[in-house]
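Before our next group meeting I need something from you. Please put the record directly below this note.
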Amino acid sequence: MLGQDRQSSDADLVAATAITPDLVVSKRNARHFEPTGAKLFNPYEA
């Protein structure tokens, strides 16, 4: 449970950093970022 909370916090921090200057989060596993509203790019699906 603690690991999930930590992972969520890390995702929120990265998403907030990306949203502020309108950047894109590039991650293979973007499921943690989907609820944040950040723009996402999965290079393995491109």
Observations:
- Residues 23 and 39 are 7 Å apart (CA to CA).
- DSSP finds one helix and two strands in the chain.
- The chain has one domain: 2-41.
- The two ends are 32 Å apart (CA to CA).
